[in-house]
Amino acid sequence: MGVLTLPPPSMARLIERSHVLETPFLLVDLQQVRGNLRRLRAALPGADVYYAVKANPHPAILRALAEEGCGFEISSRGELDLVESLGARQGLVSSNPIKPPSFVERAAEVGVEAFAIDSPDEVVKIARAAPGAAVYVRLLVDNSGSEWPLARKYAVDPETAVDLLVQAADLGLNPRGTTFHVGSQCRVATSWLDALDTTAVVWEAAERRGLRLDLLNIGGGFPVQHTRPIPQVEEIGEVVRRGIAERFPAKIQVALEPGRMIVGDAAVLGASVIGKARRGAEDWVYLDVGVFNGLMETIEGFAYEFLTSARGIRSSVVLAGPSCDSVDVISESVALPDLAVGDRLYVANAGAYTLSYASHFNGWPPPTVYTLE
User: Fold this and answer.
1) How far apart, in whole angstroms, are the C-alpha atoms of residue 278 and residue 197?
2) Among 120, 154, 122, 123, which residue's Cα sits nearest to residue 139?
3) Looking at the DSSP assignment, which residues form a beta bridge with residue 254?
4) Which residue stretches of the chain have pLDDT < 70?
5) Which CATH number describes the domain made up of 30-263?
6) Residue 60: enclosing H or E segment and its boundaries?
7) What are the φ and ψ backbone dihedral angles of 202, each rounded to 5 degrees?
8) Is the pTM of this model over 0.85?
9) At what angle do helices 158-170 and 120-129 cross, to 10 degrees?
10) Are 200 and 156 in contact (CB under 8 A)?
11) Which residues in the chain are classed under CATH 3.20.20.10?
12) Which residue among 51, 206, 235, 249 is buried most deeply as judged by most CB within 10 Å?
């Protein structure tokens, strides 16, 4: 993990407004949220955008996106109820391949447009709970270009995918197409191209079996800047547009489900140093936010950049959260200047998954959320 002494402009604006806020907090720039959506739409014109609610479900974010005409990807009854409470009942899909029957029934009642499938049992479940519903199959694609792979638990190979689409048609469902996910925080633009190659195989095989597909969902994975280089969304858009034009019919519905790219760089997480210790050969710095109440992604090695106004020689420290659990370590080695108890440390580009993963473990609260218009 790195330490930035000069924050990028988007973070500087947030930090400037945050000095009166008690830590831990998450300060979200709603202008940046809206701007990120518009930028993505410009990179992939004509595509239907469904924001992945799991990335950050704060009502102010959802409301801002709804005002922009954005759709939503929902994966549970809780997310459905939240979106519905804001009056957003149009432009909904559900890409969680495993869903409770009660959720499927309720989602169909409120007009969810389509459901993901990746197993025969799920096809049967949806056919019973939502007769005639539109479905799309989730394909297994390479996740090696991502920082947070989403393989193994879900998705199927091309041959199985076609069988599921045929099964769906036989049970009276509407098999509309396919979806995939290249992995969260994908740093390789051509990962989408490789996934489109796999998808094209399925579409061609489905047509040979009498199915005419028309929905191409390219999932999420669009990255934000942290400690490693990333492709810009314009580069990804160019790759995807070219890949679709070369492999698929002209008049199809293209959909995508961004999460991190919409909210990641739209927020800063503010924390305070609450303790320091020397343990063997290691210096430890403890914050009032850790893996259980805001920085869960670090538990799998996800690396953030930190901002501090402190000056001085930097040295490597173990950065840890406040709970009693030894798992609560944010980084085994981060170079920091000498910080005192009470000093602030800001986590850059922390709008995605910090809030949605956070718990009250050990009595430490999740960050309080504030928004800027």
Assistant:
1) 53
2) 154
3) 216
4) 1-8, 89
5) 3.20.20.10
6) helix 59-67
7) -65, -45
8) yes
9) 30
10) no
11) 30-263
12) 51
